[in-house]
Amino acid sequence: MTPQTRYTKSGKVSIAYQTVGDGPIDLVLVPGWISNIEVFWEDAHVARFFEKLATFSRLILFDKRGTGLSDRSIEAATLEERMDDVRAVLDAVGSSRAALLGYSEGGTMCLLFAATYPSRTAALVTIGSYARRLRAPDYPYFTGREEAVAAVESAAADWGGPVWAEIRLRSVADDPIIQQWWAKFLRMSASAAAAAALQRMNLEIDVRQVLSLIQVPTLLIHAKHDPAVPVGASRQMAENIPNAKLIEIESGDHLPFYDRPDEVIEHIQTFLTGSSTPEISETRVLTLMFTDIVGSTEMAMAKGDLRFADLLEVHHAAVRGELARYHGEEVRTAGDGFVASFDGPARAIRCALAITKALDAAGITCRIGLHTGECGVRHGELQGIALNIAARVAALASPGVVLVSQTVKDLVAGSGLGFEDAGSHILKGLPEEWRLFKVVRP
After folding, report:
1. Model confidence pTM above 0.85
2. Cys-Cys with 81: which of 59, 72, 77, 153 at CB 3.0–4.6 Å?
């Protein structure tokens, strides 16, 4: 029997969700590329998989924005927006802390969520997932961009039929009943254009720099012969996530519902219920912003103390107004600038652009630097090398420019934000070169 579908708001977007079971663990299942939480239940294999998960958990299912029963009249969502959707669903069901189970692309978002919100993440499980979807010189697991885009366009042209069944569910790809269900599932999850847009956005995802910052207990499950996502992608994650456990299943299916599902569920259940409750991490991944008024000393000398103090009041009010608008948290004022933190890099960039625009209207030119990294919290104050990096990035920014580290750029795939390469730089007091990028105003 299909569970009741309910809705909650994530900003202005309605997100469809269901809950199943009443076990002691809240378990959020984050679907891959596309989903439809009601059509899921029309296939007996998928239904059994969910029902077994619900025997030891309160299983929470949802459709990501732009797919399934959630609002569709939107562009492809960023990882940051998808994290907002998970938090909205958790709040709607009254869950303060849950285990995350993400398969395929859903696992990628879970990685970022676990690093950003450790206090709300009891544990992390991924199935057939990855940190990056395109080949790179140090990352040989996928195809290059041209071949990947061609595959996306080919799938869009064939939309309506059982697209990619042979590489998503190889063990049952020839079953006509499964083919019929899979084709309907795809059609009910997204239109051809929306599915292609989501795939193109997924090609831009790269969260490799976040892996070492994940502190929650992590289990990675991967089919050894997965034709969609090579097992090497999970092996790479296991090498970089502290204390992560990797289990390789003797299977050729990308999705976990058909070949050896009981084995997959047993590993998940043992992992989630066979150990004591993990302690809440005291570190978080945040995007840090440093702002600085250009030529403040000269300005103070030219205007005099009183007039410059009045100008600083205008400056502070403008910055604080934009921080409130974009949900940034003021860490402290530093001379004639601000230090602020954000739980999402795209919000931080948009806030930085808004600040430069507001200050420019007041006759004040500023420079802003952004970096995303791990921060410790001690006595309510942020600490860590990420603060130093953000400060060094800001110091290199030209007047009126928002300058970001490559970490920030890599985490805002699909946001619509543009960047210009600002070259590699040695940041004072830090080893190795850092690649920086100038944000291009839309």
Report:
1. no
2. 77
